[in-house]
Prior knowledge:
Blueprint: H1 9-22, H2 43-58, H3 63-70, H4 77-84, H5 93-98, H6 103-127, H7 131-142, E1 151-152, H8 153-163, H9 167-182, E2 192-193, H10 206-212, H11 228-241, E3 251-255, E4 270-271, H12 272-277, E5 281-282, H13 290-293, E6 296-300, E7 309-312, H14 314-322, H15 326-339, H16 359-371, H17 385-397, H18 408-418, H19 433-445, H20 459-471, H21 482-494
Antiparallel strand pairs: 1-2, 3-5, 3-7, 4-6, 6-7
Helix pairs in contact: 1-9, 2-3, 4-8, 6-7, 6-11, 7-11, 7-15, 8-9, 9-10, 14-15, 16-18, 19-21
Amino acid sequence: MKGIGMARALFLAVAVSLAIACGPTTVVAQSRQPPAFSTSGNPEFDAWRDDFARRAVSAGRDPDVLGRLLAGIEPDERVIELDQRQPEFVSPVWDYVTNRVTENRISGGLALRQTIGPTLDAVEQRYGVPSGIVLGIWGLESNYGEAALNWDAQVALSTLAYEGRRRAQFEGYLLALAQMVERGLADQNQLRSSWAGALGQPQFMPDVYLTTAVDWDNDGHRDIWGNRGDVAASIANYLADRGWRRGEPVFDEVRLPDGFDYALADGTLRPVSEWRERGVARMDGAPWRADDTALQAQLWLPAGAQGPALLLHHNFSVIRRYNASDRYALVVSLLARAFDGRSSTLSRDWPRAAGSLNRDQTLELQTLLNGLGYDAGAADGLFGSATRRAVRAFQADQSLPADGFPTASLLNRVRERAGVSPEPAREPRGLGRSGVRELQRLLSRLGYSIGRADGEIGPRTRTAIRAFERAQGMEVRGRATDVVLDAARAAVRRR
C-alpha cells in the first residue's frame, strides 16, 4: 500500500493541501458555496463531512465535485475495524518470506512478463528500474491486478478521516482525490481502492497518484486500474523518483567470519571495502567487484546470528520507500531474482528451531528489560528499534552474540536475570477426533490451510499446526494436542 507511511502523515497532509490550494489548477472562486448534503443518519459524521466540504471549497476545490464524491456516503464500520485491528503476533521472518515468495506468485510474474515483455523492457530502459523489481512490487500489491478492490476510495478515505485518529492525513488524501476528478485524471466510477483508500494495481494513495502515476501510452489517462503499461511505468517512476540507482545491486548475501561482532548490524552504513576488511565475504565465494567496494551498505541479520546475513545497498532502501518494511523489500528482491532465473531462496537456512516470540512474550520481554534498567521503550508487545537496542545491550552484558534477535531462549535468560520463573510447561495430551476437528476449524479461522475439518490429522493439518506453533513462539512439534488447542482458542479470542 503505497503512500501511507506514518512518519510522513502530517507533512503529506499539509503539503497536499497547500499544493492543491495554490496550484495552477485552482479555478474555483473563494466565494463559491459548499455543497449541501442529505443526512447520512450519523450526526457526527455529517458534522465532519459538512465542515470538511466547507474547508475544501475555501481551499479551492470544486464544490460540484465534492458534492458528487461525498453525496450519499456514510462511514463504513468495516474500514474502522480493519484500521484498528492489531495483530496479536507478527509471523517469523521465514514465514513472512515463504508465504509471499510462492510458486504461484513467481509463475504469475513470469506469465505477465511473457505477455507484456516489450513494455517492461521499455519501462526499464526509461527509468533504470529492473523489470523484476517492478513485477515483484506489482505481485505483492495486487497479485498483478487480480486482487479485488472492494471499496470506493471516497468512502474509505472519508471513514478514516471522520474516525479522527489520522484526520489531517486522510483529509489531505481526500483533497487529492477531488483534484484527480477535477482534472479529469480519473472518473469517479473508476476510483476503486483498498480499505485504506490505496488506488489501483500499484496501490497508490491519491497524493502519490497526482505526483507519480504515468500515462505510458499517451492516451490522456493515467489508468493504474486497467492499463498495464501505465501500471508498470508508474511503479518504476515511483522508485526512480525516490532515488533508484541504475545498475547497482539491491543486496548481497554474505558469510561472516568467526568471532564477528554482531553489534555491527546496527543499521550503520559502511563502505563495502570496510566490510571486506572485517572479513565479510560474499556467500558465493566470488571476490568483491571493484565497483562494489565503493558502495555503502548496512549489515542486516533478519533472523539473528543463526540465520542469513545480508549487506543491504542503497536500492534496498528505495524499495522500502514503497513499503517501510525490510521484509517487504527482501521479498521483492527475491521475487525479482526468480523472474531473472536465479534462486528465490537465500543460501543459508532460516533458524526455525530457534523460534520467535509472539506478542504476549514480547510484552513480557519488554517489561522485564525495562525493570532491569534496559530501555526497551513502551511495553506494547511490538518489537521495535528501542526493544532491539535493549536486547543488544542485554546480550552484550551477558556475553551473548549481540544480534538483537528475540528468541524463547533469550526470554528465559532475561527471566532468570530478573528472578522470574517461567511457568512450568505441562505435558501435552493428544486430542480425540472432536478435538482435532475443533482445532482444524480454529486454524482455518486464523488463516491456515487445513482442507476439510474432518477430525483426521493429515499432512495439511500437521503443516498448519507447525506454522501456527512457529508463529506463536511455541515448540514446533506438529502434533494435535490440548496445548495447541488452547493456544488456538486464545488466538481466535484475541482477533
